[in-house]
């Protein structure tokens, strides 16, 4: 199976399930180049802060993101290399209109 172990395939499938939600993919896209706070993500994505927090929790629980406390705020960063590679691969396709 092209050098991927069963565990790698299971992990990748879990990441794909999580990133299958459009808002989660948009969140990851925002975080690819820099960490960000919940309030800033909510503003950029024009989503309620509570919605962004819920998505961040799902992505953090799956190991896609890590959270770093900075004073009273929490900053989120991408952690999983599979997830970052997936985002870098599919986001340009969406931007070019080929993701439909």
The SSE order reads HHEHHEEH
Counted up, domains total 1
Helix-strand category: alpha+beta
CATH architecture: Orthogonal Bundle
Largest sheet: 3 strands, antiparallel
Binned, the helix content reads: 55-70%
Summarize the structure.
This protein is α+β, with helices and mostly antiparallel strands and 100 residues long.
How would you sum up this structure, described in words?
With 100 residues, the chain is an alpha+beta fold. The protein has one domain (6-95): Arc Repressor Mutant, subunit A, CATH 1.10.10.10. Helix content is 60%, strand content 14%. It has helices at 6-19, 22-31, 38-45, 49-61, 81-95; strands spanning 36-37, 65-70, 73-78. A three-stranded antiparallel β-sheet has the order 1-3-2. A hairpin with a 2-residue loop joins β2 (65-70) and β3 (73-78). α3 (38-45) crosses α4. The chain is globular, with a radius of gyration of 14 Å. It starts with 5 loop residues before the first helix and ends in a 5-residue tail after the last helix. The mean pLDDT is 87.
Descriptive tags:
100 residues, alpha+beta, Arc Repressor Mutant, subunit A, 3-stranded antiparallel beta sheet, 5 helices
Topology:
Layout: H1 6-19, H2 22-31, E1 36-37, H3 38-45, H4 49-61, E2 65-70, E3 73-78, H5 81-95
Antiparallel strand pairs: 1-3, 2-3
Helix pairs in contact: 3-4
């Amino acid at each position: 199976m092209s050098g991927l172990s069963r565990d790698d395939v299971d992990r990748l499938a879990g990441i794909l399930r999580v990133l299958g939600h459009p808002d989660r993919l948009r969140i990851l896209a925002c975080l690819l180049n820099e960490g960000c706070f919940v309030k800033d993500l909510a503003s950029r994505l024009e989503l309620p802060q509570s919605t962004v927090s819920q998505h961040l929790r799902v992505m953090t629980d799956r190991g896609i993101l890590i959270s770093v406390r900075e004073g009273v705020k929490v900053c989120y960063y991408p952690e999983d290399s599979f997830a970052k590679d997936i985002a870098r691969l599919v986001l340009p396709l969406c931007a070019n209109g080929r993701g439909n």
